[in-house]
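Lab notes, practical 5.
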Amino acid sequence: RLPPQLDGLKIVQLTDLHASRLLGSQWQRAVVDKTNALNPDLILITGDLVDGTPENRAADVAPLRDLKARLGVLAIPGNHEYYSDFVAWNAAFERLGLRVLRNEHVVIESAGGTLVVAGTTDRNAERFGLPLPDIKQALAGAPKDVPVVLMAHQPKGADVNAAAKVDLQLSGHTHGGQITGLHWIVQAANEGFVSGLYDVGAMQLYVSNGTGLWNGFPVRIGRPSEITQFTLRAAAQSGKG
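Output from the prediction step:
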């Protein structure tokens, strides 16, 4: 459903940055520089930005302030934000210039074309008495017949999002399984999704291997990290929306 005016729009996805003593400010700065060098129209960060409290990780996340995209930088929480003082991190992210979507959406206008970008909370919110992911709430009031890109940290529940007429879902969380062979176990625990592009009904789902790693298990073998660039194409140009 992408309008021809948005053909060629560039989105860069970052996910699972896991700012920590292992992946500190120098590493985060390198991610920011590489992302900005892609000259994206829009940057979407699909959760697990941090490991630790805002007080302990303030210097490590500071480089994120310099992320630049013509149409903005949007983010959602992952499970690790809930483990690390979700409420305080929301305020910290806003100070960094990151718009955090929590079961809500924004309308992106560019060159006369319109795109909805929605974001949901994480499934672990229930453990902390906070709102669970709610795609209906996230899309409430969104314009009709406009393509929808959804940020959802975990790929679980993709069928529900497809039924809500999301066009493209961007997720992380799995780290691609981290180790070839182990990824089969991670895939089974995530409704068959672990890495790469999937068709879920009429929706496309992309599961990133993650840009960083949790410092509790900092190992990758055969499942490389990524900064992912998407170039959106209208159906008339590509044959597939």
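Observations recorded by the TA: The first helix runs from residue 25 to 37. Residues 20 and 57 are 7 Å apart (CA to CA).
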